[in-house]
Every structure is written in C-alpha cells, then in structure tokens.
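WARN  no MSA supplied for this record, continuing single-sequence
INFO  ligand: MGD
INFO  echoing inputs
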Amino acid sequence: MTKLPQETRKKLGLVIDLDTCVGCHGCVTACKGWNTQNYGAPLSDIDPYGADPEGTFLNRVFNYEIAPKDGGPSQTVHFPKSCLHCEDAPCVTVCPTGASYKRVEDGIVLVNEDRCIGCGLCAWACPYGARELDRDAGIMKKCTLCVDRIYNDNIPEVDRVPACVRTCPAGARHFGDLGDPDSDVSKLVAERGGFDLMPEQGTRPVNKYLPPRPKDTLDKTPPKALETVAEEPTGFLGWLDKALERL
Amino acid sequence: MTRPENIQIETSPPISDEIRKTTCYMCACRCGINVHLKNGQVAYIEGNRDHPVNKGVLCGKGSSGIMQHYAPSRLRAPLKRVGPRGSGEFEEISWDEALDIAVSWLEPIRESDPKKLAFFTGRDQSQSFTAFWGQSYGTPNHAAHGGFCSVNMAAGGIYTMGGAFWEFGQPDWDRTKLFVLFGVAEDHDSNPIKIGIGKMKGHGGKVMGINPIRSGYNAVADDWVGITPGTDGLLILSIVHELFRSGKVDLDYLRRYTNAGFIVNEAEGPQKGLFIRDKDGKPLVIDQNTGKADAFDKPGVIANLAASHDGNRTVFQLMAAKYLSAEYAPEAVAERCGLTAQRIRNIAAEFARVAFEEEISLDVEWTDWKGEKHDKMIGRPISFHAMRGISAHSNGFQTARALHVLQILLGSVEVPGGFRFKPPYPKPVEAHPRPHAGVTPGKPLDGPHLGYPLGPEHLLIDDEGKAKRIDKAFTWENPFSAHGMMHMVISNAHAGDPYKIDTLFLYMANMAWNSSMNTGDVIRMLTDKDENGDYVIPHIIYSDAYSSETVAYADLILPDTTYLERYDCISLLDRPICEAEAAADSIRWPLVEPDRDVRPFQNVLVELANRMKLPGFTDEDGNAKWADYADYIQNHERRPGVGPLSGFRGKDGSKSGRGEANPNQIQAYIDNGGFWIGHIPEEAQFYKPWNKAYQDWAVEIGLYDSPQFYAFNLYVEPLRKMQLAAEGHGETQPPDNLRERIKRTMDPLPIWYEPFEDSNVDVSEFNVHALTQRPMQMYHSWGSQNAWLRQITGKNAMYLPKKIWEKQGFEEGDYARISSVHGSIVVPVALHEGLNDQTIWTWNAIGKRKGAWALDEKATEATEGFLLNHLIHELQPPKGDGMRWSNSDPVTGQAAWFDLRVKVEKAVPKPSEAQPVFPPIKSPVGKGPKVVARKI
Amino acid sequence: MHPAPSVIIFTSISGLGFGLLMWLGLGIPDFYGVASFGVFFMAYALSVGGLLSSVFHLGNKKNAIYAFSQWQTSWLSREGVLAVITLLVFAVYAIGRIFFALNLPVFGYVGAALALLTVFSTSMIYTQLKTVPRWNMAINPVLFLTYAIAGGALLSMQPTVAGVLILLVTVLQWAGWIMGDKRLLDTGSDKGTATGLGAVGKVRMFETAHTARNYILDEMVYHVGRKHSQKLRIIATLLIGVIPVAMLLLLPASMPMAIAVLVIHLAGVFTSRWLFFAEAEHVVSLYYSRG
Ligand SMILES: Nc1nc2c(c(=O)[nH]1)N[C@H]1C(S)=C(S)[C@@H](COP(=O)(O)OP(=O)(O)OC[C@H]3O[C@@H](n4cnc5c(=O)[nH]c(N)nc54)[C@H](O)[C@@H]3O)O[C@H]1N2
Ligand SMILES: Nc1nc2c(c(=O)[nH]1)N[C@H]1C(S)=C(S)[C@@H](COP(=O)(O)OP(=O)(O)OC[C@H]3O[C@@H](n4cnc5c(=O)[nH]c(N)nc54)[C@H](O)[C@@H]3O)O[C@H]1N2
Ligand code: SF4
Ligand code: SF4
Ligand code: SF4
Ligand code: SF4
Ligand code: SF4
Ligand SMILES: [Mo]
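INFO  complex generated
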C-alpha cells in the first residue's frame, strides 16, 4: 500500500564514492545480470542487436565535467545512479495500485510486480530517473537493493551485499544501514561529508554520495622547492664524493 | 489491501544449481569467476573472492560475460569461402574437410619452404603453446600481437630492469603513497589497478595522472598533468635533471643494485661506450673500500660512483653530465610538453619528497647477492605505472627507458612502497632467449622465434642484410623488435618483400578492421590479385570465435569456442597471473558443451600437428604425443619437471613449480577454483633481483635453473653496440641510410627525440594530435556483439578541446572532417574540457563494419561509430629520398599509433553517416534476435 | 515530457466529457427522452473513451483493477474511483431522464460536483509532481477545470456562456504558460544540485550513461524548441479562444457553425495539451542534458 511508513526499522542503502569511481560500468552489468536472473521479470533488451537498442537497467553510470570555480583545470566525475530508496518517496505515494511500497523493516522501496499496471506515474514522480518501465514485461523496474541477496541464506554471508557493491573493483560502493549512526556507512558519510542529490525535491534519499576530494592541489600547495647541489657536472662530482662518504 | 509489512517476498531464493570456477576472458586481465549454472546453462557470472587477481570483483566486461557467451555472432561451424574475399559468402563444411584443406596447404610448404607460412596470433593467451607449434612446424614467421601493442614498454623494461610494468609488475598497493600513471586508460592489469587505486585512496595515498586526457583513472587522479602527446620523455628527463641538480637520488641503491658504478670505456675505437670488463667478461667497478677495480658482483665490493679508471668515468657520471645539461631544464622543455616550468619543478620536488622524506622501513632481515645481511628493507613509497600512452610512439622505447631510469634513481623499484615485479620476473635480459630464424624444410626451427638481441650478431638478417622474417623483425630497421611486428605482416606479404608467402594463418586478431594501422589499405591488400587473377596472398586461414570483420577475408575459417567452453592455460611460461607476493597460474575448462560445431583452436592446432606429424607433437614411434590441448597442458614438459602449469605437480599433486606430470592436475586446478598460487617467503618479498632468498625460491619452483642475480641497467650496453656498428665498427653493418637514425635513437642512456610524424608532416597544417582510448567497458572490437555493452557505448564521437570547439564554432550534433597525411574521416564531434588543448581523441574500436558481429547493418556502430585507423598508416609519408620509414619505433618496431597528427575542419553539411563507409559484408551467422529477456 | 497521444486524448476528451456531465447535472440542457439520450451518450462516450484511452498507456493492463485501490494516497487511484462513482451517479440521473422523464436533481448536483472532482483529480495527477515544475502549479487544476467547463458549455450549446468561458481559458492558459516558463528556475534545481557537485564548479554532461535510448529519455527528456513552442502557443490561442469566440460573435448561430466552433476549439485543446506535455521539463533531464 502506498502510504509511506512513519518510520522504518532500518534505512538500508548505498554510499557511492565519487572520488574513487573510475567509471568501469561493473556495477551496471553486474546489476543487470543479477536482476535478470532473480527478482521479478528479467530485465529485457529490445532490438538488442539492431539499429536502436533499448534495454532496462537499474543502475547507470553518467559522466560529468566540472569547470572549477577557482579556475583550475576541468574535472571529470563518474556518476553512478540507481534508486536512492528515499524516505519521502514520491514514487510510492503516487502509485494507484499499491504495487510500489517502502518496506517497514529496512526501508527498501520495491515494486510488487503482481500489482503493477505499468502506468509509469511512479517514474514520473521520481526526480532521479531511478525507475524504468520494462518494455517487454510492461512492468516498472527499479533497484531492489538486491533484497534477494542481502538476506539470502543460499549464499555465503560475505556475499550478502548488493551485486553492484560486491563487484565494484574500485571499492566505490558501500552498503549498510544509514539509520544507524554507528554503522560503517554512516561514519563514512559523516567523515567525508556525504550529501543528498537534489535535496530541494524533499525526497530525503537514503543513499548518499561522497564528494570528490579536492583536486589539482600540487601547484596550489607545492612541496618545498628542490635545493641545488650543483649546476654542472664538475660541481656535481664534488657533491657526489662527499655524499658517498656520508653513506 | 495488503499492507507493505504483509507483502511476502522471497528474500532467500535459490541462486543456481551449481557454481563452476574458471577464468574470465572478457579481457586479458584474467580474473577468476564463479559461473552459476541453472539447468546446465550459464545463468550468472560473479567474481571469485579467493582469486589472486581480482579478489572477487569484476569489471563491466567481466560482469557481462554471459552476453558474450550467448552472443548471436558466435560462429557455428567451419566455413569455406565461396564468394570473393571480403564478401562474407561462405559455405559450412565439416571439421574433417576443414582440417584436410588446412593440411593440404600447410604440409607441402613445410616440406619445401616452411617460411611460406606466416602464423600470427593476436590477443593470444596460449603464446607458449602457439609458439611451440610454430617452432615445430619450422617457420620463422610467427609472433603474437605484441609488436603493435606495447613492445616498447616490454623491451624498455626488460633491457633496463629485467621486467616491465604491463602485467609483469605492480605497485606495492598497501604501502605506496604516491602512484603516478603515465599514459594509461585501462591496461591489461585492469581490475588490479582499480582495486589498487581504491585501496590507496582508502589509506590516504595520492594518484597523479599524466595524460593528455582526463577520463577514467586520470579523472580520479588527485593531480592531472595534461601533457602534450609524445613529450613524456622530455618531461621525465627534465625531472631527472631536477633530481640531479638537487642530488635527490638514492645513491646507496644505485651503487649496490645498478650499473651506475660501471666504468664506461671512453677511448675512441671499437670499444668506445662499452663497459670495461675483467678477464671473465665481468664489468668493472671501483670498489669504494679498496679503491681498486673489481668485478661488479664480487662479494664485498661496493661501487664508487664518483671514481674513474684510466680517465674513464662511471655510468653515473656520464648521466650527470648528460642530464644536468640546460636542454633538460624545466624552462627548456615546459612549453613543448604543454606545461609550465614551475609545474615540472613541483612534480620533481613532490617525487623527491615522497621518495626520501616519507621513507618507510620494514623490519625484515634479508641477505643480498653478495652475502651481505640487512636487518631492514628500506622503502620509497612512490610507484609508477605506464602503458601505451608512452609506448605507442616512435620515441616510446626511449621514453619507457627514461621512466624506468627515473624509478631507479628514486630507489623505488623492488622496495616496499615502490614498484614490484611479479614472478617469473625479475629476469635479466641475458636470461631471455635470442631470436631464431634458422629454417630447414621439413624440420623444426632452430630455436625460439622471439627474444632479446644483445648486439648486431643476434639480428635475423642474411649476408646481404635482408630480413629473414616476413615482418622484418630483428633487422636494422628495428633491431630489438622482441615481440615481432604483426602490423607489417600483411603489407610485407602483399609486397613480396622480403619474400612471398603462401599461407597466412591468423588467430584471434581483427586484422581487417581495428587491428590494422590502416584498415582500408589492408583490406585492399587482402583482396588484391596478381596478373593471373590469383590472390596475391594465396591462402588465408583464420580462427575466430565470432563473426568479426576479418572472417570475411579468410578462405578457411576454423571456428573457436567461447571462453566457457574450452580448456585454456594461463601459464608461467608466458603471461601468468602472478602477484608481487606470489607465483600463480590458472586454467579455463569447459563448463558447458558448445551447442555448435565448433572446436577449441588449441585442439585444432594439436590435430593439425598430429596430421602433419610435427616433431614436437610426435614421439619416437611416430605416434601423437597428445590427444588434445588438455592432454598437452597436463603432460608437456618444457624442461624436466617444468610444464605449462606449475601447481599440483608430481604424481600425487603435492609438488609446486617443479615435479613430474600429474595425471590429475587439471582436476586439482578445478577443485582449487581454477588457479594455483605459491607464495613467496616473507624475506624474499622485496629486492628480488638481489635477494638470495628470492632467487633460491625461484629456482626451487622452476622459474629458472640457477639464481639470476643482476644489476639494473641505467646504461644499456646492447644499444651502444648497435650504435658502434652504425659508427662503422664490427662485421655486421647497417645500411647507410639507417646509420644516422641508429646513432641518434639507440643511445645507451635515455634520450628524447621528436616523434617521427612530427618531423615528417607539416605540423602547422596538421596541428593537432589525435588519440584513441580504450573504454573500460569494451574490449577492442568484441564488445559490440554484447547486447548490454553496446547499449553503453554503441557509437563514438571525436572529442575536441574547448579551444578548437570554440574557435571553429562547433555545436552539439556537428560533424568534422579530420584529416591526416594518409586520409580523412568525417565524424561526429563532442566537447571535452578536460583535454590537452592540442589533442583530440575518441574511443577505440567502437566503429564497426556493416554486416559484422551479427548486428543490423544500420547499427549505430556502423553508421555513427568510426575508427581512427583510417588516418593512420604502417608507413610514414615518403621522405625526401623517397624512402618510407615504417611508422614504428626505430628500436623495437612498436607501432606508433599515437604519433598521429591531424587537422580538424567543420563538415558542412553533415553527412548522413560517418565517413568512410565500406560496403556491407554478408553475415555468415545471420542477425541477432529482436528481443532478449533471458531468465534461466 | 513525451507527449504521448494516449494521455493527450485521455486528458482532453475525458475532461470534455466530465465537463459536459457537469452541465447535464445542473440540468443544462434540460432534455428528456431521446434528446437526453443523445447528450448523455456523448458525455459518456467522451469520458469513458478518454478513460479507455488512458488504459492504452498502461504496460500491464491485466492488473488494471488494482488501480482503484489506493484512493487514500494516490491521485491516479482517486481519479479512477471518482470517475467510476461519477459515472454511476450519473447513470441513475440519466436513466431517470431518458427512460422515465424523471429529473433527480440531487443525483444531478452530486454528479456535477463529482464530475468536477474527477477533473480536479485528473489535474492533480500532474499537479502533484514536484519533479515537473511546470505542472506543479496551482493554476493547473484551475485550467483543467476551466477547460472542462468551457468545453462542456460548448457541447451543451450555450454559446454565450461558452464564449465567456473560452475567453477565460485563453487568458488563464497564457498566464499558465508564462508562469510555467520560469518554474524550473524557481525550484533551484540545476545540474549542480542534481549531482551535488555544484559546490566545486559549473557542471556539464560529458558522456551520457548509455549511448542507447532508454525509458527515461523517451518518456521524460522530451524537448521542444523555443521557437516551435511559441508558434504552437499562438496557434493554440487562436484555436481555443480567438477563432471560436469570433465565430460565436460574428456568425449567425447554426448547427454546422456550432460543430465547426467545437471542432476548432477541440483542435486548440489538443494543441495546448500537446504543449502541456511537450513543454514540461522533468528535473531528471538535468542528469541527461548537455549544456
Ligand atoms: N577495457 C579494455 N581493457 C583493455 C583493452 C581494451 O580494449 N579494453 N585492451 C588491452 C590491450 S590490447 C592493451 S594494449 C592495453 C592498453 O592499455 P592502455 O595503455 O591503457 O591503452 P589506451 O586505451 O590505448 O590508452 C592509452 C592512454 O595513453 C594516453 N596517451 C596517448 N598518448 C600519450 C602521450 O604521449 N603521453 C601520455 N602521458 N599519455 C598518452 C591516452 O590518452 C590514453 O589514456 O589495454 C588492455 N586492456
Ligand atoms: N586506432 C587504434 N587502433 C588500435 C589500437 C589503438 O590504441 N588505437 N590498439 C592496438 C592494439 S594494442 C591491439 S592489441 C589491437 C587489438 O585489436 P585486435 O587484435 O583486433 O583485437 P580484437 O578486436 O579484440 O580482435 C581479436 C579477434 O579475436 C576474436 N576473438 C575473441 N575471442 C576469441 C576466442 O575466444 N577465440 C578466437 N579464436 N577468437 C576470439 C574477436 O572476435 C576478434 O575478431 O588493436 C590495435 N589497434
Ligand atoms: S529514488 Fe526515485 S524511485 Fe527511488 S525511492 Fe526515491 S523517488 Fe522512489
Ligand atoms: S507503474 Fe506500477 S509501480 Fe509505478 S505507479 Fe504504476 S502501478 Fe505503481
Ligand atoms: S543494489 Fe542491486 S538492484 Fe540496486 S543497483 Fe545495486 S545491483 Fe542493482
Ligand atoms: S563498479 Fe564501482 S568503479 Fe565501476 S562504475 Fe560502478 S561504482 Fe564506479
Ligand atoms: S578485468 Fe574484467 S574483463 Fe578483464 S578478466 Fe577481469 S573481469 Fe574479466
Ligand atoms: Mo594491445
């Protein structure tokens, strides 16, 4: 039912480190692979080998450039984006069928595919483009936070994390309870100044992003200049003699 | 209505019936994968957490391997060409017929003139096996793709320090504090670099990216140095200048472990520039303690870098004289490099600061090559990695050398926090083989095809100076072409220079498309006919697993399996999966049966060898030694007790490295997750070239048969030998037209010279550099057959820097004509601000030929996507004397892809498709399905 | 937003239908028997047809019944429920008039109110969306209602009332357009807030996530050029208001003329609805657009 819970027992979500993401798309295809075989209908690809392919992906990695305010060289940031499992999820309340819901136990926002009519309204309501209507199944698809992995007794305990987190080679994706201030992810967010996307939309996302660390600092805070021991080979030989003696 | 708390979902569904562990082959990184099977079918692929390479993670390609495995482009049966070459018209035939045809071409020339076969393998991961086959067959014309890929990096490293970056070494990720990347977009060490960068950032380390383009690793780099292409050598030598000026070099390291203290003969004559040696041929140093000249490796001897001997100076003094010169001062090079002098000074100061002020020390005792005991391992936590950005230039060998010399001056090779080799490296150049080309009809070649020449005597030229190999490797044009020169094979075979061949046998190389330096020209050569109407290259056999562009140009196709359907062996005999702490190797094994009439290529080679009774494959009684490749992997011995796989040797599988063949070895690998790992003892982890414990361990596991201690070569004597020849000394003399070039480019100390294209074309007209980069999620041309990956990158644009974008008034959606001296393309453009302003670039190998890869002819890859290769050429434009030099490094023959110079003009009106357009080829496998929604 | 024909037809036609029902509920025109069958038929055809058209928009029709379940939270659900109740209430009212020449004004008035509520709910499906700032304005429900009532007035053959309402719609519509033009800016959302990277500097798209199409792009990242939309606004103005009012004022009343006015007005409504979707910027486009 599309009323949002007052409070969820946990706030499971992802923390994505924009300083480390190298943009390899590992999380994109791992997600596609896992979610094609598991929860709900497979993520389809229409015209996959044709002129105009279009497939369903629950996670996509964008690329932005930033022209820094302080005039340094342009920066490039890889930007993965999936559902942020918002606390005030507008996608849930607009849903006419009750297919969209937010779980009370962990805050995961899910689509009940047995209910969904594929009207698309939830996707319209999401500011982040985190929902995609599967063209083959006609059903709304979104990141499930791998709800069928994280509690799954059939996989080893270390692997009970989302597929995208497990695969990320750069360690740029973290998973945990953001409702618990003592969790690793909460501490990381506090330490690194994690932020919300489009806070002005009032969605209160659970997922957080860690900002890139300051870049191009070498010329701004240069190391101590190297002192000259010799300008030419003869002087250098003199220095060398002494230096070798000191060893 | 059900309230959310009452909605029941299955949070613990069964995942699969079975997990099989093997090795990824979506690229050459060779990560370990867990393949989940359902109903006997491949359902899901994830990383193997226990695997030394990837520790559980997978990149974008690896995670989409399932779509490669099910790709509609997979070849289905052997094919015999029925239409003209290039049409794509084939008829499916049986394997028997296919093998008969192949033998009917191969056997007669083996009996008459084995060099009429050119057997070249591309992105081959069984090189020790394919080379063994080539050697048994008896042709000198064999190599893999290294010559056009990164031989500068490999050779620069081997000659300098007995190992290279590439897959042969890695930073000490746990301890390094500054990681400097030169010209790397992705590289073979794909996941380890990503894991490493993540790890470094986690512990507060910094990354510096030296690259004209800011994307990928260079985007996450803390500092980006947007250098102008082709000038890295200059930047590095300027840093070296700064280090000499300030005395910031690791003198103790240099005098102990390198040839910095070797005495160089400075007297005029045939010995000039060579080391002064004792009667055993050992280079001399002046001992710091006794002041006497002694063999460099004698116990107790420590070289005095400041000494001289009969007026002859040490290498180190020659270096000081050279690099202190004003031509390398930051002010002198900054503009050329596209940087400021201050920035260069800051970079040098930062390198020195990290190396010497952040020195680390491990309390680990070890004994060095001279028997001296050390109670600590001193670490310099600065590490480097470089790849094709420096190697794919015509000055790449010397640039790679310069970079290694810089690392050595900082004392940061094989030390904690620095760069470390992976077994079987370090391995001095002397321990590598020399190249061979001794042909006897009906007999095997007289030795391995490839190797590292140590002087003119090792060149593969006949008495008239003519090349013995079809690719002209190991000639005066490129004497140290240690990986062969695959990019020259087709043009030389077409020209009949140095001779004509009969059969071109290719494996896993898309030579009729992205693998060629000039695609259109190569297509012309492959289809060209002589006056009798016969093809100039009479027979072409090709093994591919997919419907690539090159398939259309072969007469006979031997279809391979996918990587989940065959045995493979990633062996310590060629390019293993080792880590700096451990030796490791791995296998692939058939997890599923092919549903098509295809065979693993290595099995086909065994069958061909057996039919021809090739010596290496046949026992004394004339019987086949091996039934198939798996049999070979398990039972072949290169040297007694040493075979393709190092793990689980000995009858009962209890031995590592050395041991008799184990009949259950492959099963042992399977049971162990597809790989074997043997850890290096703790006291042997660093200082490996000079560490007794390491050398003993290496001998024990069979990496070599006796310890191979050596000194790093700041000064490379074999280069000097080539120069001496060019100066007129010695019996083997280069042709006159090459003398000057050899003298200039084969300097025994690193130098920088302008990339050849810069001197051969009008740089005021062709005023920008054009580059390609590998997208992380695509592997060369094969990514496009993958339905998931092609949605990510299904077309490419030419990225232009802001300066060009604004000056020429480009807007989104525009096309530009990009021209080089060799041709022009008309392609979509886009803006990239994080870009050196004299550089444009695009993603590599996204453009596809219409009809290939089971894609629709209107696929964006074929209508908007494009190759840069139409603008490149394997030859430089003619010089004043009408000679055309090959577009390669003069030392190694490495293809100089990134020397390319172009001009950019707005294309109005824009064309309906990116230009040039080639006619479609007929797909031998049909087209892919209209919808894929595969849940197993 | 992608101007999908199904939703354009749905909102325009069903609006018209419920607008007509509203007048019928008020007893205008005061028909009974066959004549009343005609007008009710028209009203039902329009409102039900519109609703059916919206069903074409659904990816998975077999679950459609659940769409009535979430009336407590979802405007789409409310709209469905209200539409059904409205049609049921009017069924009683219509049956009375058609078959029994019986006027049940309570059903009429309640029905009229429900019809307006239905149109209001329809408008709220869009208005509630903070993600589409151009829709997220109080004037939109007013516009939807005015469109419905004006169209209903035309259909219920009240030239003067219709004329006045049409003029009102036209003026309101211009106000809506002008207010809408700066809505996105007012939200404060830009690439900087979307990516959270605005603090570092000016953010621009370098490479989109996938070069291939996707649902979000198709559905939400539709773009009409400024010039094109200005042109369409003028055309819409002429069709909705200017021409019909001129015709009503200048030409003698006749059936063909009434039909012509209706058709022209309808064309205007479609045009403005097309613009309503096509011009609406979804904030997700901040992730996708260059510049
Ligand atoms: N995902 C993926 N991985 C691959 C491959 C693949 O196709 N896809 N291919 C594999 C193969 S065969 C190879 S050889 C390796 C190659 O691995 P890389 O060496 O990473 O190859 P490129 O992508 O060609 O990247 C070359 C880099 O050098 C930069 N560059 C070019 N010229 C200069 C220069 O003069 N100076 C500096 N400093 N930089 C320069 C370019 O901007 C680019 O970033 O990758 C291997 N790994
Ligand atoms: N412009 C430009 N061009 C370049 C480069 C560049 O940087 N810029 N880089 C160059 C470099 S370094 C390289 S290494 C080359 C690489 O270029 P190629 O060697 O052409 O590499 P691929 O495109 O991967 O082609 C290898 C072929 O192997 C086939 N194949 C894949 N898997 C299998 C298998 O399991 N079995 C068999 N039998 N075949 C298989 C593929 O279908 C494909 O046809 O490109 C070179 N070309
Ligand atoms: S990100 Fe979008 S889909 Fe996910 S909870 Fe928030 S609003 Fe809903
Ligand atoms: S598409 Fe499905 S989940 Fe989304 S609002 Fe409609 S019914 Fe609900
Ligand atoms: S959590 Fe699972 S569903 Fe969500 S993006 Fe990651 S892999 Fe995809
Ligand atoms: S897998 Fe990790 S590094 Fe790769 S794109 Fe995703 S978040 Fe970035
Ligand atoms: S780096 Fe990626 S593609 Fe290459 S072997 Fe590893 S997982 Fe496979
Ligand atoms: Mo390569």
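The CA atoms of residues 73 and 125 of chain C lie 11 Å apart.
INFO  checksum written, moving to next record
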